[in-house]
Specification:
The structure holds two protein chains of two kinds. Chain A is built from 22 helices and two strands. By secondary structure, chain A is mainly α. The longest helix of chain A has 32 residues, at 153-184. The radius of gyration of chain A is 22 Å and the shape is globular. Chain B has a single domain (2-116), classed as Helix Hairpins. Chain B is built from four helices and no strands. The model of chain B has no long low-confidence stretch (mean pLDDT 87). Classes of the chains: A mainly alpha, B mainly alpha.
């Protein structure tokens, strides 16, 4: 069972490669079925890993049996397994959606999807910063392919921006890694946390520069304020299944911020503790603001949802910036909810767009939606969840985050912005919903029915907030334990590094 | 040697950033390449610069840090693949969008000056 940790990486890697070989590569249907089996298997493994991690034991897998600071380790603790499960649920639903009629031309969609999942899983599992860079590149190159899938002008333009920005980001990532390795002599996250505590004060400014450069890179992935302009165009241009899967991509950046700036530059880092907070707090709040403005300005449904992702990213960053255990727990709960619901909304937007004919998802009066009642109710549920109205999980998440703000300064900034953004979302989604469903310019020419499998995938994702709020008790306990484990820096160092190396002094 | 090395990294990075901020795809691709050269040199130096140090442990008391070399190798391979991808993408964009600007449209200032000349 010890090798279980590696399976979420090996399955998509080998599966993706197998799909390129003769028996599978010849038929897209076979590829799809195989991918679904793989995805279900990955989900099962993630559930097992979550179960193991929730018992409090951190699974550490030393690749090639080289112990922690020397070799690369995979770490399956509460946080990484939780996000692994989230990824596999989202990936399963996105994959299910490709079973519908609009599986776009081109034969490499399914292998690319598997490599994307490999990169995301790897980024969550790795315990080494350079390895994190490698997995980032894997998920990026797969995402370049997926984003441009189907071709067309808008996709090429959005893709070019996305690729160039991320290449520049990779260069900054490497600079940061060079600085950290040059000063601290290690890239293992747990070892970095240990070395930062013993750091010579003269070198602290360099390490601070390296750490903050990492924040730029992760901020680019997470779509933090000055680096978020690529997101709406890219997400609105991509195919629905890809857009739904990409809902997890910004969360990879948020996970990396959470991991590095809580463990390495956390409570125990002496003069370098909490170096990200003063940046994350204002930038997170301003991201909420710019996301809300984007929501107000959106002319079509998919762009609207993409801007909602920016709002949720800003909210998460601002709450994470408080760098307290209860704030982190609240952010994690909201992260689960917002990822699943934005994935579901992207799928729903496509279902709606396809029944409106030429108008697509533009928010103008057009042909009526064929299955108006069904899709309208789904839209209503999704809207309630994403706005954060009771009884769905968005409400619970937002209440948790609002109550995590303790000081007057925090409350006076976070509360108005968070509640204001909810109001803006409420207004815009009401407008969108009434335009789409209540204000048709003509009767639907023919009653188009949504493909049942696509409908199933959408309903599965949209039902998640309901599940999250029904099981709010156990889930909040789980995220609280996760946050506690994340903030226990010494505990993490102890579980990853073998006891011997902790005694050896830095030369 | 350190000063020369640092100047090299600095010049490469500065030139890379300058070209990266240009409006057409070709200078941007060249800029990304220069930037990755600068990064690779920088990463290599993070193991400290050594004269006449063995690359293999145990061959002498004075040895170079092997890890940055492994990191640089990985970074070079990844950077090479990414550059190849962005070159193809830039050509695709030239074909799809009809011009070689990163934004996919010719800025009005350029159009004006072309009309005048």
């Amino acid at each position: 069972m010890q090798h279980l940790i590696l399976l979420p990486l090996i399955l998509p890697l080998l599966g993706g490669l197998l799909m390129l070989l003769p028996p599978l590569t010849e038929s897209r249907v076979r590829q799809r079925n195989f991918a679904l089996v793989l995805s279900a298997a990955t989900m099962l493994i993630s559930v097992l890993l979550v179960q193991q991690a929730q018992q409090g034991e951190t699974g550490v897998y030393a690749v090639g049996d080289w112990a922690a600071p020397f070799g690369i380790v995979m770490v399956a603790d509460r946080l990484s397994t939780l996000l692994l499960l989230l990824t596999s649920v989202l990936a399963f639903c996105s994959l299910l959606y490709t079973f519908g009629p609009r599986d776009e031309e081109g034969s490499f969609f399914q292998p690319l999807l598997q490599f994307q999942i490999l990169g995301i899983n790897g980024a969550f599992l790795t315990g080494d910063l350079f390895n994190l860079f490698v997995f980032f590149e894997i998920l990026l190159i797969a995402s370049y392919g997926l984003l441009m899938f189907g071709g067309g002008k808008t996709r090429t333009r959005a893709g070019l921006h996305y690729v160039i920005l991320n290449l520049a980001g990779s260069a900054i990532f490497l600079f940061a890694l060079g600085i950290l390795y040059g000063t601290l002599g290690t890239l293992n996250i747990a070892d970095l946390a240990l070395k930062v505590q013993q750091l010579d004060p003269a070198e602290a400014p360099l390490v601070r520069a390296g750490g903050l450069m990492l924040l730029i890179v992760f901020g680019l992935k997470a779509a933090m304020l000055p680096l978020q302009f690529w997101l709406p165009a890219a997400y609105a241009a991509s195919t629905p299944a890809v857009a739904a899967l990409f809902a997890i991509m910004t969360k990879v950046g948020i996970y990396a911020i959470l991991r590095v700036f809580t463990v390495v530059f956390g409570d125990a880092a002496g003069p370098l503790s909490h170096i990200a907070g003063p940046w994350l707090w204002p930038l997170g709040l301003m991201t909420i603001l710019i996301g809300s403005i984007g929501v107000l300005a959106s002319q079509d449904l998919r762009r609207l949802i993409a801007n909602l992702i920016i709002v949720s990213v800003g909210t998460l960053l601002a709450v994470i910036a408080m760098q307290r255990e209860n704030a982190t727990a609240a952010a994690l709960y909201y992260l689960l909810h917002s990822t699943l619901i934005s994935g579901g909304l992207f799928l729903l937007a496509d279902l709606i767009a396809r029944q409106r004919g030429k108008v697509g998802d533009r928010l103008v009066p057009g042909r009526g939606v064929g299955q108006g009642r069904l899709l309208g109710s789904l839209f209503f549920i999704g809207a309630i969840a994403v706005i954060g109205m009771p009884p769905l999980a968005g409400f619970v998440g937002k209440v948790l985050m609002l109550s995590a703000a303790s000081s007057v300064a925090e409350m006076s900034w976070l509360w108005p912005l968070l509640l204001g953004s909810s109001l803006v979302t409420l207004i815009m989604l009401s407008r969108a919903g009434s335009t789409l469903f209540w204000n048709p310019a003509g009767k639907p020419v023919e009653i188009l029915r949504a493909h049942p499998v696509q409908l199933l995938a959408t309903v599965m994702l949209l039902a998640m907030p309901l599940l999250l709020s029904v099981f709010a008790g156990p889930v909040t306990q789980m995220v609280a334990a996760t946050a506690q484990q994340l903030h226990d820096v010494q505990g993490q160092i102890g579980s990853v590094l073998p006891p011997m190396t902790q005694l050896v002094e830095v030369k | 040697m350190e000063a020369l090395y640092a100047v090299c990294v600095g010049v490469l990075t500065a030139a890379g950033v300058f070209l990266l901020l240009r409006g057409r795809t070709f200078p941007v691709v060249v800029g990304l390449t220069l930037l990755s050269y600068g990064v690779n040199l920088f990463l290599f130096s993070s193991g400290r610069l050594n004269d006449s140090a063995a690359a293999v442990l145990g061959a002498g008391s004075n040895h170079a840090d092997p890890l940055p070399q492994a990191l640089v190798l990985t970074a070079i391979v990844i950077g090479f693949a990414m550059t190849a991808f962005v070159v193809i993408l830039a050509m695709r964009a030239r074909g799809d969008l009809g011009n070689d600007h990163v934004d996919g449209r010719v800025p009005e200032i350029v159009l004006d000056s072309e009309e005048r000349s």
